[in-house]
Automatic annotation (TrEMBL), chain A:
Single Gene Ontology MF annotation: peptide transmembrane transporter activity
Keywords of this entry: Signal
Family annotation (SUPFAM superfamilies): Periplasmic binding protein-like II (SSF53850)
A single GO BP: peptide transport
Recorded GO CC terms: ATP-binding cassette (ABC) transporter complex; outer membrane-bounded periplasmic space
Species the sequence originates in: Alteromonas confluentis
Gene3D superfamilies, per database record: Dipeptide-binding Protein, Domain 3 (3.10.105.10), Periplasmic binding protein-like II (3.40.190.10)
Name under which the protein is recorded: ABC transporter substrate-binding protein
From TrEMBL, chain B:
Provenance organism: Alteromonas confluentis
Major place of residence: membrane
TM regions (residue ranges): 12-30, 104-127, 148-168, 174-192, 232-263, 283-304
A Pfam family hit: BPD_transp_1_N
Similarity comment: Belongs to the binding-protein-dependent transport system permease family. OppBC subfamily.
Domain (ABC transmembrane type-1) ranges: 100-297
UniProt entry keywords in alphabetical sequence: Cell membrane, Membrane, Transmembrane, Transmembrane helix, Transport
Protein name as annotated: ABC transporter permease
Any one Gene Ontology cellular component term annotated for this protein: plasma membrane
Length: 518, 313
């Protein structure tokens, strides 16, 4: 056996590597006036229609109307608004002295131009609703609508309606920069990975105390949890249950869990011969073990959903409804009454046809596929065979439009239009339903009642009307609510005054303060 | 050597056309309406709707016949224009430059560090074949290789980022950010290449010609460097060339774990969002890299192995 040349001595290799690693051991130090935020959101461009949700959270852009934690509206770039008697014309009074990040001043003409561009792009409501925008003076904007629309101000709180400086738009109104009015302005943007901002000193409101803020896209929940644990990030959003468990034992990090206006629902195609039968829908709802899903999968007991809108959505949530409970016995009895008899293979049949359905769900919310397979198991105990298909989120609107969708598990966001009446008017007033709402549901009496609420000028009757609507939806079950959505975020103890915006419009950076080092 | 390079250039041109065409056909064969998928990529899960999909379809001319779109792409390719991303609207060439530079840094550093681990370790084990060291190295290699690279990355994060707090967990923006992803990839690569080096070393040091070089009076170091080393390098180099190609394609997991803005991450998103120009651009660049790396391996073979020069001449 030849001897080993000295240059390949094992000891030497170990020494070289240890030295190299020690030399390069250099986690960047924390800056005393900069914070780092990480979340899964991937901004793809400057366009508010596609990435406005993140620029709004980073407080770069603002809208005419802002939203309180309970979903009620408050002044934003508009100090107030009022409508004519039938809600077909809305007048907004603009805040004076508002500067854009390029130093220009906001006025009615700029607002009109910015919103006209926004209405030409996809928005979360029917853009043809706005027929005309006029400007009687430099601080007033009037919207003439194609129909009476009571919740119009809530539409003006959506991030796609952000007010931008004219210098943001280039040829053909394409975005060349994002020049908003928020307390922070962009200094660097590397889509989809990084946004750097700096405090905007000419902000119309109370300026923030933190000078610089960086957003880093952390694609995985584990990565984000480790980033906040090691001090690389100061705030991380959208953590999964496993990451929350890990961070709860860390003294230098606080975990915040808040209910947000998002409900995990089962969308049903009521044109389907199986699902057209209300007793089958009720049986499917009764067969769900929501407590198991909430506690076992999501590890958040108490978020079981017994109605469409969750707590915190004002009059549109009924506190006195009994909590949902699983009853396989009742579910089986209802299916039998509907003519579905259990066969030896464990599946129910009616007239030789099996009780078999397809459910689509999507991968971007990782918990959905786990919940879908839990539902598959729970329904099988009642004799229902469910085939789960993992898709892209677009399969839901696409399946709704071409009618191929049978059932879908989805996490419906109700924060896009903070007034639930806007959602009801869009999705619950026709058999067509909504792409992220009911499908082929026929309840003309309720449809006209909701339209009536949309025309009502008195606020006093709203609570009773809302209860009536929610109760009817619950009885008829065009959608089956499963669980409400708990959002987990973690914050380094280096920061104080953190609060979570349940409508996820803002990271509330301007309210934060960095604790002085001891 | 000119002939090698000319052959590879022709291959590159053929490859660019075939990869682009194949990507074009395959994306259209994927199930689901493209306009909806693009709308989901552009506007996010909560905002994807039929209205958004219709707007996308009208804007991008997706309703035009496929052959028209293909001819349009081919013409753009001939004029060296890769088009714009359907999701972000940014020119593909800019996105690729950005993403590819990050991936090349990652892959290049990983292969160098892998070589720094694999060659000394492999040679040591080859010389000491069947010793305790060799068996321990085999066990370690098997253990590392049987782990998904993702697990290895997490282990390194736990050790170096959390326990020792030496390096950042994820992100980019300086050398410290690159160390953990590079080390993860390098260890994973070295686990196999060290065994290739070990086998070559073992064959070399046990060969008759190596024994002869010692008998004729060369010192062990001189015999090793002059005679064994070139013979060890050739198979190891070919293997690492293949590894580098696999590495550029396979960094998706690592880029996702360490939030590294490379091409793997860009490619996976382009597939989900049906961002065809981005997919075609990425596939073209990867195909081109494949040919380039093969050309480089051929050239280094030519320079290292005198027998190749005889064959070529």
């Amino acid at each position: 056996m030849p001897s080993l040349p000295a240059v390949f001595s094992f000891r030497l290799i170990v020494i070289v590597f240890t030295t190299l690693l020690s030399l390069t051991a250099c986690t960047p130090p924390r800056s005393p006036d900069k914070i780092v935020i990480s979340g899964p959101f991937e901004p793809v461009s400057y366009d508010p229609a596609s990435s406005g949700y993140i620029f709004s959270r980073m407080q770069v852009i603002e809208t005419l109307v802002d939203v309180n934690d309970d979903g009620t509206l408050r002044p934003g770039l508009a100090t107030g608004w009022q409508s004519n008697d039938d809600f077909s014309e809305w007048t907004f009074h603009l805040r004076e002295g508002v500067k854009f990040h390029d130093g220009s001043t906001m006025n009615a003409e700029v607002v009109r131009k910015s919103l006209a561009v926004a209405f030409g792009k996809p928005v979360p409501f029917d853009a043809s609703l706005v027929k005309d925008i006029t400007i009687p003076d430099a601080h007033t904007v009037v919207f003439t609508l194609s129909q009476h629309y009571r919740p119009f101000p809530s539409l003006m709180s959506n991030y796609t309606m952000a007010i931008l400086s004219p210098a943001s738009f280039g040829k053909f109104n394409r975005m060349t920069a994002l020049i908003g009015t928020g307390p922070y302005k962009i200094t660097d943007f590397q889509p989809p990975h990084n946004i750097s901002t700096i405090r905007f000193d000419d902000y119309w409101g109370r300026p923030g105390t933190i000078k610089e803020v960086e957003y880093i896209t952390g694609h995985r929940s584990e990565t984000r949890a480790l980033m906040v644990k090691t001090g690389q990030a100061d705030i991380v959003y959208n953590l999964d249950p496993a990451a929350v468990e890990m961070l709860k034992s860390d003294d230098s990090v606080s975990v915040f869990s808040e209910l947000i206006p998002r409900t995990t629902l089962i969308k049903l195609n009521l044109d389907d011969p199986i699902l057209a039968d209300r007793s089958v829908r009720q049986a499917l709802s009764l067969a769900l073990d929501r407590t198991g899903i909430a506690s076992g999968i999501l590890r958040v007991p108490g978020i079981e959903a017994n109605q469409l809108f969750g707590p915190g959505m004002g009059v549109w949530h009924m506190d006195d409804l009994p909590p949902p409970s699983q009853s396989l016995k009742q579910a089986k009895a209802l299916l039998e009454q509907a003519g579905w008899q259990l066969a030896n293979d464990g599946v129910r049949y009616r007239n030789g046809k099996s009780l078999e359905m397809n459910m689509i769900t999507y991968a971007n919310r990782p918990e959905l596929i786990i919940i879908a397979t839990a539902i598959q198991d729970q329904w099988s105990q009642a004799g229902v065979k469910l085939n789960v298909h993992m898709e892209n989120s677009s399969a839901i609107p696409s399946g709704h439009t071409d009618g191929t969708l049978q059932t879908a598990l989805m996490a419906r966001n109700f924060a896009n239009i903070p007034d639930p009446l806007g959602i009801l008017l869009a999705d619950f007033t026709s058999e067509q339903g909504g792409e992220w709402g009911p499908m082929n549901w026929q309840n003309p009496s309720l449809f006209s009642r909701i339209e009536q609420i949309g025309r009502e000028t008195s606020e006093a009757s709203l609570p009773a009307q809302a209860r009536d609507v929610i109760r009817t939806i619950n009885d008829d079950l065009p959608l089956i609510p499963v669980v409400y959505y708990m959002q987990h975020s973690a914050v380094s103890d280096r920061l104080q005054h953190f609060s979570f915006d349940p409508y996820e419009r803002s990271f509330r950076i301007a309210d934060l303060q960095i604790r002085s080092e001891p | 050597m000119k002939r090698i390079l000319l052959n590879r250039l022709l291959q590159a041109i053929l490859m660019m056309w075939s990869v682009g065409t194949l990507t074009f056909i395959l994306v259209r064969l994927l199930p689901g309406d493209m306009a909806y998928k693009i709308a989901a990529g552009r506007y996010g899960d909560d905002a994807v709707s039929t209205a958004a999909a219709n707007a996308v379809s009208a804007e991008l001319g997706l309703d035009k016949p496929a052959f028209q779109q293909y001819l349009h792409w081919l013409w753009d390719l001939l004029s060296l224009d890769l088009g714009n991303s359907l999701v972000s609207g940014a020119p593909i060439i800019v996105e690729l430059q950005n993403q590819l530079s990050f991936t090349l840094v990652l892959a290049g550093c990983a292969i160098v560090v892998a070589a720094l681990i694999a060659f000394p370790l492999g040679m040591f084990c080859g010389v000491k074949a069947d010793s305790g060291w060799d068996r321990a190295s085999l066990t370690m290699s098997t253990f590392v290789r049987s782990q998904p690279v993702f697990c290895l990355g997490l282990l390194l994060i736990f050790l170096f980022a959390m326990e020792l707090n030496w390096f950042p967990v994820a992100g980019y923006g300086g050398a410290p950010y690159a160390i953990l992803p590079v080390l993860t990839l390098a260890i994973s690569l070295a686990a196999v290449s060290s065994r290739v080096v070990r086998n070559s070393t073992r064959t070399a040091v046990n060969s008759a010609w190596f024994e002869f070089s010692r008998i004729k009076g060369l010192s062990s170091r001189r015999a090793f460097v002059r005679h064994a080393l070139p013979n060890i390098l050739l198979p190891a180099l070919a293997f690492m060339g293949i590894q580098l190609i696999g590495l550029i394609e396979g960094v998706i997991m690592i880029e996702s774990l360490f939030a590294w803005p490379g091409i793997g991450h860009g490619l996976s998103h382009a597939v989900f969002a049906r961002d065809i120009p981005m997919l075609q651009g990425t596939a073209l660049v990867m195909g081109f890299l494949f040919v380039l790396i093969n050309a480089l391996v051929d050239v280094s073979y030519y320079l290292l192995d005198p027998r190749q020069q005889e064959v070529q001449s």
